[in-house]
């Protein structure tokens, strides 16, 4: 389809992307501030994206932030329950209730080329369908013990190719992987 789907996400060492109640404040602890780290490649990543696709839970969390962090970027919120889109975002945020492959094919038909897939459940659904091409995962040096998982039982085995690892003085370790594909399908 000529369209690429990427993940760019932070996770605790024990694999959670948020506390059980969705809190992500632990990502911004003062001891993590590391000027030498810059933005961990975020701006470069975002500049390569033309559409952000996120699950409703992530969208609702972002709405609770003091400002909308994605500027004019087109955002697709996946939801079966029709979340309310604030008026000021209606020109760039749309809602879709569709299977991941349908979402990708609709966006491809619109000429989109690089999708940022966000939210734990959403990433897992895209992985399950073999739709994720690349993942950048920044491990934060904390064990949350419990929370919302990045990964789960996706019902298939996926081979990854390691692209790069960067480590930062504040203890963040960023791994970049290409998703090669389903091991069962290759046998
Ligand atoms: N650490 C980080 O970098 C990071 C990044 C992103 C998010 N987060 C955190 O992760 C939490 C959210 O993650 P999450 O795993 O709970 O969920 P999520 O993926 O954000 O949202 C899941 C919801 O999206 C909807 N959905 C997903 N795929 C769909 C599809 N194909 N069609 C229709 N609806 C679909 C469903 O909502 P309905 O019930 O409406 O159908 C589903 O319950 C938040 O607390 C957020 O702050 C952390």
Properties at a glance:
187 residues; alpha/beta; Dihydrofolate Reductase, subunit A; eight-stranded mixed beta sheet; two-stranded antiparallel sheet; 20% helix; globular; binds NADP nicotinamide-adenine-dinucleotide phosphate
Describe the structure.
This protein is an alpha/beta fold. The chain has a domain of 101 residues: 3-Layer(aba) Sandwich (Dihydrofolate Reductase, subunit A). The protein is 20% helix and 32% strand. It is built from five helices and ten strands; from the N terminus they run ββαβαββαβαββββα. The strands form two sheets. Strands 5-4-3-6-1-7-10-9 form an eight-stranded mixed β-sheet. α2 links the parallel β3 and β4. The longest helix is centred in the middle third of the chain and has 10 residues. It is globular and about 45 Å long. The site of NADP nicotinamide-adenine-dinucleotide phosphate has 27 residues, from β1, β2, β3, α2 and α4.
Q: How far apart are the first and last residues' alpha carbons, in Å?
A: 24 Å
CATH uppermost class of the domain at 4-9 and 41-135: Alpha Beta
Count the E strands: 10
Global Rg: 16 Å
**What is the overall shape?**
globular
Short précis:
The protein is of the alpha/beta class. 20% of the residues lie in helices and 32% in strands.
């Amino acid at each position: 389809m000529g369209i690429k789907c990427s993940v760019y996400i932070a996770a605790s060492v024990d694999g959670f992307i948020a506390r059980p109640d969705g809190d992500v404040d632990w990502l911004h602890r003062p001891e993590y501030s590391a000027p030498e780290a810059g933005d961990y490649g975020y701006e470069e990543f975002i500049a390569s994206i033309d559409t952000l696709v996120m699950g409703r839970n992530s969208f609702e969390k972002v709405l609770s932030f003091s400002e909308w962090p994605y500027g004019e970027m087109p955002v697709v919120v996946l939801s079966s329950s029709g979340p309310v889109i604030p008026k000021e975002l209606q020109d760039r945020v749309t809602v879709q209730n569709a299977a991941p492959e349908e979402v990708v094919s609709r966006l491809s038909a619109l000429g989109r080329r690089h999708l940022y897939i966000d939210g734990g459940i959403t990433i897992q659904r895209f992985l399950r369908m073999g739709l994720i091409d690349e993942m950048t995962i920044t491990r934060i040096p904390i064990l949350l013990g419990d929370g919302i998982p990045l990964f789960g039982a996706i019902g298939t085995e996926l081979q990854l190719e390691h692209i790069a690892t960067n480590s930062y003085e504040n203890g963040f370790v960023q791994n970049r992987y290409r998703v090669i594909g389903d091991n069962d399908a290759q046998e």
